[in-house]
Design brief:
By secondary structure, the protein is of the alpha/beta class. It folds into two domains: 178 residues, Chitobiase, domain 2 (2-Layer Sandwich), CATH 3.30.379; 198 residues, Alpha-Beta Barrel (TIM Barrel), CATH 3.20.20. It is 31% helix and 21% strand. The protein contains eleven helices and 20 strands. The protein has a six-stranded mixed beta sheet with strand order 2-12-8-9-5-4. The chain has a six-stranded parallel beta sheet with strand order 13-14-17-18-19-20. A four-stranded antiparallel beta sheet has the order 1-3-11-10. Strand 4, helix 3 and strand 5 form a beta-alpha-beta unit. The longest helix has 18 residues. It starts with a helix and ends in a 12-residue tail after the last strand. The chain binds zinc ion. Zinc ion binds next to helix 9.
Length: 396
C-alpha cells in the first residue's frame, strides 16, 4: 500500500510539471475514479488513477516487446481491435505509447527497465501477476513476469477503456496497478463453459475442463480426441483447457469392453445397478492402465494440452477378482487402484511428455473412502474435490 501512495504523489507531481503536447493530464476526481473501478472485473488488488489524459485516438500507439509470445500478441491484438472498433484508429500513433510485454525478475523488458515488476516476484500465482505503470504523461507500461500476466494487464486496460471513447478521442487513465489472483485456477467444466472461453478469459477466469472423445481403434489402441480450436483459443487468452477422460466406470461407448473383455470388473460388486449401468474396471489388469495411457497420450499430443483430468469411477462398484480383493485387504480400494493407475499412465508417458500433468476428480463413489484415495494418490497427480449430490460435504 505504501508503494501505491508514493506513486499517487508522483502522478500528481506530473500534473504540475507537464508542459509539452496538446493534451495535458487532468487530475482524476474521486467519483470519476470510482466509476472507472466499477468497470474492472475482478477489481485489481492495488489500483489508483490519480490522473488521466484525453487525446485523439489516432495519436495513441502500441509497442509490443520484441520476441513476444502468442498471449502477448493476443493482448496487443485485442487492444488494437478495441481502438479500431471505437474510432478506426490503428494504434500506430506516436503521441501516447502503450508498451506491453513480459519483463524479467529484474524488470528488464527489452531495452526498457520497469522496476515495478520486481515486486511481482514472490507474489502468489506470480505468473499471472502484472503491473500497469504510467511513465510521465505519454506512456503506459503493461508488464508481467509471464505472458499470462501480460494478458491480464491488457484485459484490465480494456476494462478501463470501456466508455472512454468519444468523437474520435480517447481518455486514457494514467493508472497504477499491481494485481495478482488469490487462487491459481478459476473456472468450470460442463454447462456452457466450452462456448464461453473468450467470455471467461475476459473476466480472468482461467480453466475450462472439456470432455474428450474416446475410442479403441482397429489396432486395439486407445485414441482420444479434443477440440484443438478450444485449446488454442484458451491458450492465447491465458486460459487452460483441460481434457477430461470420462468416469472410469462409464466407458461403454469406447469399445473397450468388447475389445478387451478381460478388463471388465469381475463379480456382482462390479455393477452397482446405477443409471447407465456403470461397471468397474479391473485395474489389476495391466491392459486397463495401458488403455488409460493410450488415451492420455492422444490428448497430450494436442498443442497446448498441459494437463489431463481423469474422472474416477462415479459409483462404488469394485472388481472382485483375486488380485483386486487382495488389494482391498490391504486397504487399497477400487478408487485407490484407479488413482494409482493414473500415476502409472503418467509414468508411461513421462519420456515423451515430461511436463504433462494429470489430475483426478473425486466422486460420490469415492466419498466414503476419500482418505484412502488421497493416501494412494501419487505425488505427480493432482486432485479435484467433487461429490455429486453432496458437494456441501467437504470434510477433507
Ligand atoms: Zn480385478
Amino acid at each position: 500500500m505504501e508503494r501505491v501512495c508514493l506513486l499517487v504523489v508522483t502522478g500528481v507531481a506530473l500534473l504540475v510539471s507537464a508542459t509539452a503536447g496538446s493534451a495535458q493530464p487532468v487530475k482524476t476526481g474521486k467519483q470519476q475514479e470510482a466509476l472507472w473501478l466499477h468497470r474492472v472485473i475482478p477489481l485489481p488488488k492495488q489500483i489508483a488513477i490519480p490522473a488521466h489524459v484525453t487525446l485523439p485516438a489516432a495519436e495513441v500507439g502500441l509497442r509490443l516487446r520484441s520476441g513476444a509470445g502468442d498471449a502477448e500478441r493476443q493482448a496487443a491484438a485485442e487492444l488494437k481491435a478495441l481502438f479500431d472498433a471505437q474510432t478506426g484508429a490503428a494504434l500506430s500513433g506516436d503521441g501516447f505509447q502503450i508498451h506491453i510485454g513480459v519483463a524479467d525478475a529484474q524488470g528488464r523488458m527489452g531495452a526498457a527497465v520497469v522496476p515495478e515488476v520486481r515486486q511481482l516476484v514472490g507474489l502468489p500465482n506470480s505468473e499471472q501477476a502484472y503491473v500497469i505503470v504510467p511513465v510521465g504523461e505519454r506512456k503506459l507500461i503493461l508488464a508481467g513476469l509471464d505472458e499470462r500476466g501480460v494478458y491480464y494487464a491488457a484485459r484490465t486496460l480494456q476494462d478501463l477503456l470501456q466508455g472512454a471513447f468519444a468523437d474520435g478521442r480517447v481518455t486514457i487513465p494514467l493508472a497504477t496497478v499491481v494485481d495478482w489472483p488469490d487462487m491459481a485456477e478459476r473456472g468450470e467444466w460442463g454447462g456452457s463453459a466450452a462456448g464461453d472461453i473468450e467470455w471467461m478469459a475476459a473476466r480472468k477466469l482461467n480453466l475450462v475442463e472439456l470432455h474428450a472423445g474416446m475410442k479403441v481403434n482397429a489396432e486395439g489402441r486407445g485414441v482420444a480426441t479434443i477440440d484443438q480450436g478450444k485449446i488454442t483459443a484458451g491458450r492465447l487468452r491465458a486460459l487452460k483447457v483441460v481434457p477430461i477422460i470420462m468416469h472410469l466406470d462409464y466407458l461403454h461407448g469406447t469399445g473397450l469392453y468388447e475389445r478387451y473383455p478381460g478388463v471388465v470388473g469381475v463379480g456382482n460388486a462390479a455393477r452397482t445397478g446405477a443409471g447407465g449401468d456403470p461397471v468397474a474396471l479391473c485395474f489389476s489388469q495391466p491392459k486397463s492402465t495401458e488403455m488409460l495411457a493410450d488415451w492420455m497420450r492422444s490428448l497430450a499430443a494436442y498443442e497446448g494440452v498441459t494437463d489431463i483430468m481423469v474422472w474416477l469411477s462415479e459409483y462404488h462398484g469394485r472388481c472382485e477378482c483375486e488380485a483386486c480383493d487382495a488389494a482391498l485387504q490391504q486397504g487399497v480400494t477400487q478408487h485407490a487402484l484407479e488413482v494409482q493407475a493414473v500415476g502409472k499412465a503418467l509414468d508411461i508417458l513421462r519420456e515423451d511428455y515430461p511436463r504433462l500433468n494429470a489430475r483426478v476428480l473425486l466422486t460420490q463413489g469415492t466419498y466414503p473412502d476419500n482418505d484412502k484415495v488421497l493416501a494412494a494418490t501419487p505425488d505427480n497427480v493432482q486432485v479435484s474435490y467433487y461429490c455429486g449430490g453432496g458437494r456441501e460435504r467437504s470434510t477433507y
